[in-house]
Amino acid sequence: MRKYCTYILLIAIAGFSACQKNLLDPVPTTDIPDFKAFETKDRINSQLNGLYSVMKHGKFLGGKFEIANEVRGEDFVNEKANNVTLNATWRMVPTGETQEVKEIWSQGYITINNVNVFLTGMNAVGNKVVGDSMAKIYAGEAKFVRSVSYFSLLQLYARPHWDGAGSKPGLILHSEGHSQIGSYSKARSTVNDTYAQVIKDLDSAEALLPKPAAGTLPAITHANAYSAIAFKIRVYLFLEKYDKVIEEAAKLVSASAPFVSPGGHALEGDIFKVFTTPYSSKESIFSLPFSGATGDFPGTQTQLGYYFTPSAKPYTGNGEYSLHPNGIISDSSWKSATDARRNFILTAGAKKYWVKFPTPSPFTDFIPVIRYAEVLLDVAEARVRQLNTVDASAVAMLSAVRHRSDASVTYTIADFATPAALLAAITKEKHIELLGEGFRSMEVTRLGISFPSKSSVVPVIDPTAAQYIWPISSDEMIYNKLCVDN
User: Is the pTM of this model over 0.70?
Assistant: First the structure.
C-alpha cells in the first residue's frame, strides 16, 4: 500500500502546486497537512475544480473507463492487437498486471482520496473561509464526485448485486484523506456496504446542492441536486430496488409525455445536439468537459475518439476498434433508413466505425456521464419490473427515446404481449441509445447475462466465470495485504 499512497501524495502535491501558481507566497508542499490550500477562497475553488479534473483524467472517467466497458461487450472488434489499447480486456483475459486494470483502479482511488483530503481541509479551515452556504455546495459536489467514482469502480472490480444479494466483496472504503506517505492497508467491504456509501453520498449531495435550470454549462459540468437524483436512479436500478427508482424518478420525470424534469431536463429533438458544441443540451444532466487548453483533454491513448474513429479525414483517430458486424448494429429493428443514430456509423473501406465522438485531436468532445435518455429508460425498466405489467408509462418513455431518433416508430401497449417483451425492448433501446458511452459491460453484468463470443479467440463468458469481472490491481494486492483478490 505504501507505493499506492506515495502516488496519491504526488498527485495531491502536483494539484496543490498548480493552485499556487502566480501567488506571491508559494507554500512548500510539506505544509499540505497544515491546510494552507484552504486559507483563501481562490485556493479552495481551485481545489474543488481539481476534484473534477482528477475524475475526468483519461485513465479514469475521461476515457479508459468508458472504453473498457464498451470493448468488454460484443459491439467492437479489436483491430490492432495492442495490449496498451485494451486488447487484453477485449479478449477478456486481463490480469492484475494489465495496464488498464491498474490505471483505472489507481486513478479512481486517487479521485476518492482527493475528495477525502478536500473534505478534511474544508472541515478544518475552508468552511469558515467560504461561509456556510458555499461550504455546503462544495461538500455536495465533492460527495457527488466520490459517489460516482465508487460506483464506477464497483462495476468492474466486484460481483454484481444479484450475486449473493450484495454480500460478495466490494471495494475498499476510505473515508479519511491520506496526504502523507504511510500504510493504509484495509480490507474490502461488501458490495452492499459500497452501495450504501454511494447512496449516502448522493443523498447528502442532493440535500446540499442547488437545483439550477437545465441546459447551461455550469449545470452540466458541476454536480447539482438534479444530477444527484439522476445518479441515484441508476444506482437503485443496479441495486434491484425498483421501488426506489420510481420514488426518485418522481423528482425528475413528469408523469406523462412529453417528459420534462422540474429543472427543464428533456430529450433534445435532435440527438446530435447532445454530442456537438457547445454541449449545452437540456438532455445532458452531468458531463465531463474538455478543451484544447494544455492538460484539459485526455492523454495519449485514452481518448474515445482515438479508439473508435478512423484516421480517414476529417477524423484523426487510430481506428483501434471497428464495429462488430454481428453486434447491435445488425439488429433489424434499428432501422437503417429512418433512425438518426445510424448516422453515427461511418464506413471506411471494409470496416464500420462509431463516430459519436468525432472531434479530431486533441479529442475534446464532452463525455456524458448521465443524460435524460438513460433516466427515462432506467425508470421504464424499473416500472415494468416493479409492477410486472405492460405499464403504459414505461411504454411511453421507451417510445419517447425511440421516436426522438426514428419518427417512423411510436410504441403502444399493443406492441408488447408480455412484460418480458417490453423489458427486452427497453434493454435493446438502451443498448442502441448509449452505444459507445461506456455502458455495455455494466449492463451485461447487471442483468446477469453472458458476454457473447466476439471471435474465435474470445469465447462466451458465462456469469459464473472468473473473467466476468476484473481482478484487483496487482499494486493494491502487493501493498495492501488485507485486500483479497477476485
Answer: yes
